[in-house]
Amino acid sequence: MRRGLPRLSLTQQVALLSLIPILALGFVLARVLQAQIVTRAVADASQSAQLLARIGIQPQLTPADLRNGLSPAEVRAMDQQLSARSATRDLARIKIWNTRHEVIYSDDHPLIGHVVAPSDDLLKALAGRPNSGEVVTPSPHGDTASEVGLGQLVEVYVPLRFIPTGPPAGVFEIYLSYRPLATAIARDKRTIALLVFCGLALLWAILFRIVAGASRTLRRQARENSRLARYDSLTGLPNRTLFLEQASAALRRECSRGQAVAVLLLDLDGFKEINDTLGHATGDIVLREVGSRLRARVGEQALLARLAGDEYALLHPCPPGAHGISEAQTLAGGVQSALESPIELDGVALNVDASIGLALAPHHAEDLDTLMRRADVALDRAKSNRSRLEVYSPEHDHFDTARLTLLGQVRPALERGEFILHYQPQADMRTGRITGVEALLRWLHPERGLIPPLQFIPLIEQTALVGPITMHVIDRALEQLARWRDHGMHLSMSVNLSARNLLDPELPRRISSLLGRHAVPAHRLTVEVTEGATMADPEQAVNVLVQLRALGVSVSIDDFGSGHASMAYLTTLPASELKIDRSFVTGMCQSPREEAIVRSTVDLAGHLNLHVVAEGIETPEVWKRLAELGCETAQGYLLSPPLPPEEFTAWLRDRGEQQASQELSTLLPLGLSTYHEDPKPTTP
To answer: What is the Cα 490 distance to its own chain's centre?
Structure first.
């Protein structure tokens, strides 16, 4: 098989391409110099001929000789004069013309006395305007027929003047042999060619050296730039760009073989505290040490990279299915073990741990982007739950395209009035009377119908839209409360606040304005906050809640017991109510532990003079047990699910009629239903 031509490097291409113009330059320069050599040689020969004519020949002549011609003796004397001078060694032929175009002397004696038609050069010389010498080749049919056989000649016409300012009395026509000139010219041409070649070769060599050096520098810089673009300068590990490239190739390769690929995302726990306390220089040392330990632990089989900050990534081939997840979990455990030993820095032992999120392809995703995102979801769960390691689970993935699309529709939906409220009743556990309702937000989407709150509320709470949505909820809830009041139904209203609401210093003023607009007494409104909502900025949250309590608004701690700082915050939060989380209430009759938690909460609230609400009541047994423990208010599906305002109003009237004719005990399975008749205001 015929081999293709080898591919030239950039330096070789530049060398070849630069050689072409240099050779062309050398050729042109040589030709120009050679032409100048020829011109100069002919000019020198012309000057020699003129010198010969003026010094060697003209002194032997007189004007009479030109008019009358030379005698035989004078011709012989002229021959002797020419033959005696060494300057005539290159003389090939000489003719002396008078103004009548007659040859009065020639070293070729048969030409003496001839009168011929004058050439242009002869006429110009007789007019005193001779041309410089020129190289001629004698031709038998021209005016140089008599010089045939003498070879190439240098022809020179020299005007003959006896009076310096007068017209020429005749002309010397001198032919010098061109052979000595040609020999000297050839020698000079070789010298010039050699000098030009050497000079241009030196120039090309210098240019090539400059280009080669620049090329080496560029290649070195390109390699360095490529390394910097693909490797982390701090740890020397691949960076995100290189990791994604190699991970994508590995994913295609392993999946085509029927194998799986595990992606592990690692995030160092408490690294921000290290940076803030000991400085970024110490943080960099920690990052390098972590990278070194990880590299030593995973070896060459896994692809290890530092993505950004204190986040690292691992890609490891695994068997498919559950075996692959198990192997990846083992690898994650080994990684965490590699970080267990403290990092010693200037006598300070730093303990570094990592949270890890794990996703497996093709089990969890078939493309790298989705796989990375799902590993990140698992990492986020591992950090929020402090569980150190989490495997991706779809039930924990709240970040998908549909949800983001839905989030983009929130503001238009608010403007179009698509957000509506459903209401769930709250009843006095001793009398069964309905004392209040909780307003629960729903989205009536024009295409998707009624969207469950868990699909959009967590998204809204992470954006600035939570403020307008919350004020919309309070406005609609107070409006409905006033409408029920006008129909003789005097209830209290509970609404939920998010963490971002508690960061708004204008919230108390806005709520006060809405209370005034709908003429609703402040004690009829309860705001429910979770323990976690107050932890973002505890000082600001407490300040906002204190202002609300000053207005007369009640504050309820929602989902009590499910947070991380319940007992500590009870001493600082201006709460008037505890709402026991449904996770403890629903199964308390089957779980002694859950019942013990509920009992302790009720006792605690009693000692702190806090009202207690139990949500999630679904059976009469739970109702009865809560009443025995001293719980005051009930909420749950045993009473009613959340209902739209029209249905809730009808439900209130219908159940009120039933309660008027039935005992409380018979109503429990159906759901208690009477509203509370205008209770006296309580001091907040």
So the answer is: 61
131 pLDDT more than 90: no
Burial zone of 420 (CB within 10 Å; 0-12 exposed, 13-18 middle, 19+ buried): middle
Asked whether 348 and 322 are in contact (CB, 8 A), the reply is no
Asked if 619 and 625 touch (Cβ cutoff 8 Å), the reply is: no
Helix, strand or coil, per DSSP, at residue 659: helix
Phi, psi of 519 (to 5 degrees): 55, 45
The secondary structure of 504-547 as a DSSP string is -TTHHHHHHHHHHHHT--GGGEEEEEETGGGGSSHHHHHHHHHH
The Cα 321–Cα 323 span in angstroms is 6
Contact assessment for residue 314 and residue 243, using Cβ atoms and an 8 Å cutoff: no
Taking a C-beta distance cutoff of 8 angstroms, is the pair 254, 317 a contact? yes
Of 490, 548, 495, 542, nearest in space to 520 by CA: 490
User: Can you read off the two tokens belonging to residue 232?
Assistant: 């982390």
- Residue 501: which residues within 8 A CB-CB, separation 6 or more? 466, 467, 470, 507, 533, 544
Q: In 3D, which of 35, 62, 55 has the Cα closest to residue 158?
A: 55
Query: Minimal CA–CA distance to 110: which of 149, 59, 75, 157?
Result: 75
The residue type found at 176 is L
Distance separating alpha carbons of residues 676 and 532, to the nearest angstrom: 32
Hunting for tokens 């239903």 — which residue is that? 673
- How far is residue 455's CA from residue 442's CA, in Å, rounded to a whole number? 10
Q: Tell me what pLDDT residue 324 has.
A: 82
Asked if residue 572 has pLDDT above 80, the reply is: no
CA separation (Å) from 589 to 30, 175, 593, 640? 112, 140, 10, 20
Strands (E), 245-404: 260-269, 303-308, 311-318, 343-345, 348-350, 353-361, 389-391
Average of per-residue pLDDT across 198-203: 81
What pLDDT score was predicted for residue 401? 67
- Determine contact, residues 637/672, Cβ cutoff 8 Å: no
| Cα gap 597→603, rounded to integer Å | 10
Q: Which residue has the higher pLDDT, 546 or 40?
A: 546
| CA distances, 258 to each of 68, 196, 588 (Å) | 122, 69, 48
Measure Cα distances from 352 to 13, 297, 593, 625, 674 in Å.
54, 16, 36, 48, 59
pLDDT of residue 1: 44
DSSP state for residue 627 in the 8-state scheme: H
Buried b (16+ CB within 10 A) or exposed e, 495-513: bbbbbbbbebeebbeebbe
